[in-house]
Structure formats: structure tokens, C-alpha cells
Amino acid sequence: MSDRKLDAVDITYYAEPPSYQHFLAEHLLKNEPALIGPALTASWRARTEWAQPIKKTTTRDHDNHNPTTEPNFQFLFQTFGAAQVQVADCLERDFTDQKRGNMTFAQFIEMWQSNAEESAGRYYLKDWHFVKAFPDYHAYEVPDIFEDDWMNEYWPSRDEEDPDDYRFVYMGGDGTFTPFHADVYRSYSWSSNICGVKRWTLFPPGQEHLFKDKFGNNVYDIRDVDEKKFPRFSEAKRVVIYQVDGTTLFVPSGWWHQVENIGATISINHNWNNACNLKMMSKSLGSDLAEVCHTISDVKDMMDALEFEQTCQRILLINSGWNWETLWGMFACIMERLKQDLDAHSPCENRPPVKFSLNAIREVVDYWSRFPALKTVFKAADNQDLQVVDKLLIDIEHKLKKMSSMAS
């Protein structure tokens, strides 16, 4: 399944899904990737209805890493054709991403099939919020080991007209790819191949300085790196994995990667987080905020202190997708559920102990509370989440102490 490059980076393969406790200890806490066999996805509706045995092999040879299934285009077209989707043109770079356009899913399928061999590597349906679009279809079940998902617990619950989520479907032909990147917020991700094969090149954290040019720009396509601009990129440790039909890859926080599709490929992907990677996500938020503050530092003297901090938070939200208020909103949501779990004496088997999650939140709250601007920004926005989170922390800590004393 894996083809190691430059350095031996072990990727554990599980023919059967591991228990949550094993996955927590060996992968979530250690921030190590894992590949899980087709047994995990075998019963999914997406696997039985979206894919079919391959009829004709038109892919390039990849050391025998070729797909055995392909999309059931007729079923997909008839069932989901009217949906609006976002499609990337893999031949058109747009800064660090690819140029994207909107169309119906039926138009995408027609475009994909009409000139299959010539355009196979060009058009890639990305970031389709399938669960939002078809909430009653139930294409898959979130595996137990990925159930502790704060992002997709919080974002859909937000009081917005069209709340976001981080549950996606991807579809693309042979040769379509996602450029070199690390996942949003430095979250975890999991990706299940419904059909086709993905070639992943994963880079362990701590090598980010090797990915940048002198202007701070990152490598875009690892298959075409200008050695003059990125003279040390070849030093980066990496591992190449071929993810075949039906398998699921867990990508830990901060692991940069590039993905290329082999054959007509469909995948289901979630970005997610929990207490285990909260500190890394907070660090990412801090780095992004520092970059924003530095970028607009030349206009700082034109604003009062509050206006500058508010401007930084607005830009941070636009650029990174979240800011202080988003983070505290997630804390309030998750801790309310933790409190309810304690009240009901019903801890979930697929989550760490409440105390572990609470301590992770407490550490991040204490870190950001050292910034005087935090309270000022929340007060100006009339946002009560600072007080809500502080109260929940105290309440839950009190409950845990009471339960501990009763047990002893």
C-alpha cells in the first residue's frame, strides 16, 4: 500500500477497523496516519450504489496500483443531477489553489463523460457539501474512530441561515489532483475511497521551512518544483501511499500532502478536530493572527487599539475561516454537550474522558486569556461566549471533583 521515499515513515494498515481506544492511543494522541481496509466501508450505501466493477481500464500504469471499480455514472446522474457543485480546473492555477466554477452535477457528469480521455485529468468536483445537500440519503456512516468530531458538531449548529460543515464528496478523472497543502485549521482529516485509487504523498510536520521560497510562498505541485526557488525541498521526508478502492486514510494534523487520482475516483472526506489536536489548531490560529497583524502593521497608527484588533479579527475570519469568536463558539457548544453527558451519566465510548477534553480546552483558554485584546473584542461585539465558556469550565470542573470525591 505504501512506497516510502527518502525516509522510512511507517503507515499502519488495518484490515479491520481498530477499536477506538487503540486508535486514540496510537494515532490521535501520537498524530500518526493510518490506512484502514475496505471492511470499514463495505456496508455503505455509497459503496454499493455509487460504484460498479470497472469495465475498461484507461488509466496509466502505476506499478499495478490500478482501480477495480468506477463510478456508476447513470445512477449518480439520475439521482443527484440537479445539485449545484463546485468544479476545479486542474490545469488553471489560482494562487495556491485551482480555478473553480459552479455548475449542476449533471453538467459536470456530462462534461466528464463527453470527452473522457482528453479531459479526464482536468475537471475535479471538490468540496461538495453532500450531507447538507441530501440530508436524508445517508450515503455513509461516520466510523466510530472518527466520531469525536467537534467541527462537524459545532459548525452545522450555528445560528445562521446556511450553516457550514466540513463533510465533503470529491469526484474526478484519472490525473486530477489537489495541490500541496495542509488541511484547514490544521485539522485532522479522513478520506474514504468509494472507487478509484488515490496517490498520496504525505510529509510529517516540522519541515515547513523546506516548503517555502524566500518570499514565504509554498510549493504548489510537488511533481514540478523549481529547485532554484525551493532549493531544500528535496530534503523533506515523505511517504507515498496508494489508497485503493474502499480503503480509508486518516491524515493527522499538520501533515502536508498532495493527492493525485488514478482512474475515475470518488471519495468522501471529513475535516475534523477534538481535544487531541486542539493545541495544534490553536497554534495555527495564533500563527495566522500574527501574520495578519504583521501584514497590516503599517496602518496600525491610523486606528485606535480596538479598531486595529477588530480589523485583524475580521481579516483572520476571511483568510483563515475562523477567529477568536469562532473558537469560543465551538468551546461553548462542546462544553455544553460535555456538561449534559456528565448530568446524564452517559459518557460516549468513542470519546476520551470528559476531564481530558476539559483540560485541553482549559489550556487553550488560559493561553489566549493572556491577550488583553481578547476581552475587549468580545465586549465590543456584545459576544457573551467568554463568560459562557468560563462558567461552563467552572461548572464541569466542579462536577468532576464532586464525582471523584463520591467515587473515593
From TrEMBL:
SMART domains (alphabetical): JmjC
Query: InterPro entries this protein is in?
Result: Cupin_8 (IPR041667), JmjC_dom (IPR003347), JMJD6_ArgDemeth/LysHydrox (IPR050910)
Q: Which GO terms describe its molecular function?
A: 2-oxoglutarate-dependent dioxygenase activity; sequence-specific DNA binding
- State the PROSITE patterns in the record: JMJC (PS51184)
**Positions of the JmjC domain:** 131-289
Domain of life, per UniProt, equals Eukaryota
Q: What Gene Ontology biological process does one annotation of this record name?
A: positive regulation of translational termination
Cellular component annotations (GO), alphabetically ordered: cytoplasm; nucleus
Spell out the PANTHER family in the cross-references.
2-OXOGLUTARATE AND IRON-DEPENDENT OXYGENASE JMJD4 (PTHR12480:SF6), ARGININE DEMETHYLASE AND LYSYL-HYDROXYLASE JMJD (PTHR12480)
What is the designated name of this protein? JmjC domain-containing protein
Q: Which organism is it from?
A: Umbelopsis ramanniana AG
Q: What is the lineage of its organism?
A: Eukaryota, Fungi, Fungi incertae sedis, Mucoromycota, Mucoromycotina
